[in-house]
């Protein structure tokens, strides 16, 4: 009696998958659902972190941790050390189980075709909540984007979406998360375009923008976004003001690159310490507690501190101190093992940098009349670009926060200058820089995973012509007459690859008694099954050969052969398919 309903459900599921895969409007509907779920996750995570702050630090319900004048040193030390210990033990448990490192949305879209694990997403959420909840100097944005993207990825996998559609849906999850965090749909959408999907096209614009709008409306219905940025209206910008903001962008680029360089240094210091890996977050917690005893503004993402500092008149020494302490606290948090994002922290530090720049410019050029609010917005945007990336993302954040199109134009020019300077001097944003430290070489979320998936093992001929290297020329001619295979692989007495022999060349020789091994070419040049097609094409070019043997990297055993013409056709076909996906084609 239960077989028919199950069959009916299975048939309905297959039909639904087929309809969604072929119908763009239904994909937009799926994106709306994903965006709304991402918005709910943002609110839930924010409330949990706020309740942790209230319980640990004794805050009022309408009070932000980083906005307090002071916090209890005992509460800060105890919570940060216990939170660090929990993270250290969690990491130790995962390493004992040999769990692979979690894949973030950028890496998933660049290398894995948009495939993300919901289980890993929940792990990141837990680690981020522990980190931010105990007061570490990180934001919740990493957890927001991770769980939103993971849910989107799982939905796309269940619907068996095509690779490009799955990547777009992952972008929808991340867009919804960021849009919900700031109540800024354009910011969320361009965060996905620039940082998660890696491209803007007509094909991905509809779902991503729909997801951002759905997430924004969801959080507004549930009480409001957690990271609203407010500031007084900026003054009208002159041409000279625009040039000054571009100069601020270059300063932000220098600070951002310095922070990323320092991140690698601080991480090496923790690794070189005699502390066991699980104890490093505890040591980081002790350092953060010491900073918090000076000012609580180093705790959490810094939203309360931003609201507190924007209207206040702060001296240059105070601003420098806050910038140095906040950046150091962020780097110590991440290097020691706390988990979280730098999106809002970079905005907070950028606002302080903008105030400092306005003070310096006013002292050096009194006639410039540089508006401090414009500098605050430009500092937020440009340092966000330097550390997080995405010039349009940060420009739209400024536009949606200020409501001023004129100042957004000046910020856009400054953000572009920052992006160009960081690319020229460093080459990475913080997100891709941390992947680079793990051994990855990606520069962004552009899909290069198909290159890694298209391996020599998938392309090779598994039954190539092979002959022993001790065979005589006459034996070779008998076994491989003209008109058959063009190249034959030699195998030595131990079964290892020993070179290639051209059949026409062998038949052109005059001596039948000669050994075939005398004609061997490329005896030490062979492809390996795990090589990708791009590496194979490079080896074809350097070896100047139209065919190469495929051998085991360790044993030298012959596994097959691969022709350059076939590899080039497959490479061109996959490149064309990837380009069509980016441009919104089939």
Q: Do you know the CATH topology of the largest domain?
A: Clc chloride channel
Count of spatially separate domains: 3
Query: Could you tell me the mean pLDDT?
Result: 86
List low-confidence stretches. none
What would you note in describing this structure?
With 586 residues, the chain is mainly alpha-helical. The chain has three domains: 16-221, Clc chloride channel (Orthogonal Bundle); 239-447, Clc chloride channel (Orthogonal Bundle), CATH 1.10.3080.10; 450-575, Roll (CBS-domain). It is built from 24 helices and five strands. It has a three-stranded mixed β-sheet. It has a two-stranded antiparallel sheet with strand order 4-5. Helix 2 (24-57) crosses helix 7, helix 2 packs across helix 9 (202-221) and helix 3 packs antiparallel against helix 5 (118-134). The chain is elongated.
Main attributes?
CBS-domain, Clc chloride channel, mainly alpha, 3 domains, 586 residues, elongated
Would you summarize the structure shown here?
By secondary structure, this protein is mainly α.
Please render the helix and strand layout as text.
Layout: H1 3-22, H2 24-57, H3 73-96, H4 105-111, H5 118-134, H6 141-158, H7 163-182, H8 185-197, H9 202-221, H10 239-272, H11 280-294, H12 303-309, H13 316-336, H14 343-364, H15 372-387, H16 391-402, H17 405-425, H18 430-437, H19 449-453, H20 456-459, E1 466-468, H21 473-479, E2 487-491, E3 497-502, H22 503-508, H23 533-543, E4 547-551, E5 558-563, H24 564-583
Helix pairs in contact: 1-2, 2-5, 2-6, 2-7, 2-9, 3-5, 3-11, 5-6, 6-7, 7-8, 7-9, 8-9, 8-16, 10-13, 10-15, 10-17, 11-13, 12-14, 13-14, 14-15, 15-16, 15-17, 16-17, 23-24
């Amino acid at each position: 009696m239960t077989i028919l309903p199950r069959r009916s459900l299975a048939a309905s599921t297959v039909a639904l998958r087929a309809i969604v895969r072929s119908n763009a409007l239904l994909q937009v509907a799926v994106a709306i659902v994903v965006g709304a779920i991402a918005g709910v996750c943002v609110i839930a995570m924010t409330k949990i972190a706020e309740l942790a702050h209230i319980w640990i630090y004794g805050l009022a319900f309408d009070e932000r941790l980083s906005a307090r004048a002071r916090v209890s040193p005992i509460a800060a030390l105890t919570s940060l050390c216990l939170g660090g210990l929990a993270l250290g033990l969690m990491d130790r448990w995962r390493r004992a189980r040999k769990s692979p490192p979690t894949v973030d949305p950028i890496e998933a879209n660049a290398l894995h075709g948009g495939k993300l694990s919901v289980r890993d997403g929940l792990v990141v959420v837990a680690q981020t909540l522990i980190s931010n909840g105990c007061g570490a100097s990180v934001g919740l944005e990493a957890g927001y984007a991770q769980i939103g993207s993971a849910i989107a990825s799982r939905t796309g996998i269940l619907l068996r979406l095509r690779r490009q559609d799955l990547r777009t849906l992952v972008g929808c999850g991340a867009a919804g998360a960021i849009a919900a965090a700031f109540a800024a749909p354009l910011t969320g959408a361009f965060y996905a375009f620039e940082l998660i999907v890696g491209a803007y096209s007509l094909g991905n614009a509809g779902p991503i923008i729909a997801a951002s709008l759905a997430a924004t409306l969801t959080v507004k219905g549930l009480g409001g976004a957690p990271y609203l940025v407010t500031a007084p209206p900026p003054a009208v910008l002159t041409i000279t003001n625009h040039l000054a903001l571009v100069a601020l962008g270059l300063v932000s680029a220098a600070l951002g690159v310095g922070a990323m360089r320092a991140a690698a240094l601080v991480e090496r210091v923790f690794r070189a310490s005699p502390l066991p890996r699980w104890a490093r977050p505890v040591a980081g917690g002790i350092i953060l507690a010491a900073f918090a005893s000076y000012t609580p503004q180093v705790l959490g993402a810094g939203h309360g501190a931003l609201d507190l500092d924007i209207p206040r008149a702060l001296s240059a020494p105070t601003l420098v101190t806050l910038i140095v302490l906040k950046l150091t606290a962020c780097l110590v948090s991440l290097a020691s093992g706390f988990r979280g994002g730098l999106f809002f922290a970079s905005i907070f530090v950028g606002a302080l940098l903008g105030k400092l720049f306005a003070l310096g410019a006013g002292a050096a050029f009194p006639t410039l009349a540089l508006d401090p609010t414009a500098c605050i917005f430009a500092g937020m945007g440009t340092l966000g670009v330097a550390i997080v990336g995405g010039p349009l993302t940060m420009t739209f954040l400024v536009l949606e926060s200020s409501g001023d199109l004129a100042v957004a134009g000046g910020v856009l020019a400054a953000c572009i200058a920052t992006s160009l300077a960081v690319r020229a001097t460093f080459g990475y944003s913080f997100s891709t820089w941390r992947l680079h430290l793990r051994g990855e070489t990606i520069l962004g979320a552009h899909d290069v995973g198909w290159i890694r998936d298209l391996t020599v093992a998938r392309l090779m001929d598994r039954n190539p012509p092979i002959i022993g290297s001790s065979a005589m020329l006459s034996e070779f001619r008998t076994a491989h007459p003209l008109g058959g295979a063009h190249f034959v692989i030699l195998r030595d007495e131990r079964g290892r690859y020993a070179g290639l022999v051209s059949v026409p060349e062998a038949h052109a020789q005059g001596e039948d008694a000669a050994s075939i091994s005398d004609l061997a070419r490329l005896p030490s040049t062979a492809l390996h099954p795990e090589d990708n097609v791009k590496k194979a094409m490079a080896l074809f070019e350097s070896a100047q050969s139209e065919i190469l043997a495929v051998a085991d990297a360790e044993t030298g055993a012959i596994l097959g052969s691969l022709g350059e013409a076939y590899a080039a056709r497959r490479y061109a076909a996959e490149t064309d398919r990837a380009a069509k996906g980016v441009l919104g084609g089939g």
